């Protein structure tokens, strides 16, 4: 529908969130090692994440769960030429919800805030896939 690559910018923005989280994880792990709270050998098999970096580690794992459906959906929508202002908007809603969800997760970790933020991104992804199904069924 659109003759642009606008659908890819939310994917790029999400990739940068993952890069930021990897940086935060490394920084928190190093701080734990430097402070002497953690033996660096603990990371050889990484069977237990230190408390200092646990929230970032958990959030980083979250970026490879629902977001995989988001990324696949964005690519499929683009390939099928089903992208439009609504799907681009849904993609941005997903990414913004992931940034805010990540912020809450790695700071206060308040579930009462995290869950609604997750649900916003979840709904945006469901709507994107729903649109793709409708597009394919009617094209």
Automatic annotation (TrEMBL):
One of its GO terms (cellular component) is membrane. Keywords: Membrane, Transmembrane, Transmembrane helix. The lineage of its organism: Bacteria, Pseudomonadati, Pseudomonadota, Alphaproteobacteria, Hyphomicrobiales. This is MAPEG family protein. The chain crosses the membrane at residues 6-25, 69-96, 116-137. The keyword Transmembrane applies. It comes from the Bacteria. It is found in: Membrane. InterPro entries: MAPEG-like_dom_sf (IPR023352), Membr-assoc_MAPEG (IPR001129). The keyword RNA-binding does not apply. It comes from Aliirhizobium smilacinae.
């Amino acid at each position: 529908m659109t003759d642009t690559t606008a659908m890819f910018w939310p994917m790029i923005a999400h990739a940068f969130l993952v890069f930021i989280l990897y940086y935060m994880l490394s920084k928190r792990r190093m701080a734990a090692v430097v402070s002497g709270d953690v033996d660096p050998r603990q990371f050889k098999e990484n069977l237990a994440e230190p408390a200092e970096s646990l929230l970032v580690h958990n959030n980083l794992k979250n970026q490879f769960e629902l977001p995989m459906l988001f990324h696949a959906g964005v690519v499929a929508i683009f390939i099928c030429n089903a992208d439009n202002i609504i799907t681009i908007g849904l993609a941005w809603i997903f990414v913004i919800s992931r940034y805010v969800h990540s912020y809450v997760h790695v700071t206060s970790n308040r579930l009462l805030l995290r869950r609604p933020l997750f649900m916003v991104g979840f709904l945006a992804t469901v709507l994107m896939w729903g649109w793709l199904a409708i597009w394919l069924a009617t094209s």
